[in-house]
């Protein structure tokens, strides 16, 4: 195995590492907006029946927080994804 073959093999390993890193970031942040959206939906549905969940200030604030958390988590997901790509590109250039 000469130097060029070793370099190609190292680059392939780095590409695999980059793919795994991208997938792990994707899966971690993909759940956050879904959980928030489902929680907000559950609160909205629960407030339809006044006996089930009265629409108090606490419920309204919680609903607003959950609804605001959806775009914030998506922005955080995009930021982390970009950082992971930059990190992988940096190490790829170093090889």
Give an account of the 3D structure.
The protein has about 100 residues and is mainly α. The chain is about 90% helix and about 0% strand. The protein contains two helices and no strands. The mean pLDDT is about 80. The chain has one domain. The two termini are about 15 Å apart.
Brief summary of the model shown:
This protein has helices at residues 3-48, 57-94. Helix 1 (3-48) packs antiparallel against helix 2.
Secondary structure elements and pairings:
Layout: H1 3-48, H2 57-94
**Which consecutive residue ranges, at least 5 long each, have pLDDT under 50?**
none
What distance separates the N and C termini?
Answer: 17 Å
Strand content bin: under 5%
Estimate the helix proportion, in percent.
Answer: over 70%
What tags apply to this protein structure?
mainly alpha
């Amino acid at each position: 195995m000469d130097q060029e073959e070793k370099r190609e093999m190292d680059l392939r390993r780095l590409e695999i590492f980059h793919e795994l890193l991208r997938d792990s970031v994707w899966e971690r942040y993909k759940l956050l907006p879904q959980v928030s959206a489902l929680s907000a939906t559950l609160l909205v549905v629960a407030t339809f029946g006044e006996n089930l969940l009265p629409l108090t200030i606490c419920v309204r604030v919680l609903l607003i927080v959950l609804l605001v958390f959806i775009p914030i988590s998506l922005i955080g997901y995009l930021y982390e994804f970009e950082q992971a790509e930059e990190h992988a590109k940096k190490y790829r250039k170093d090889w």
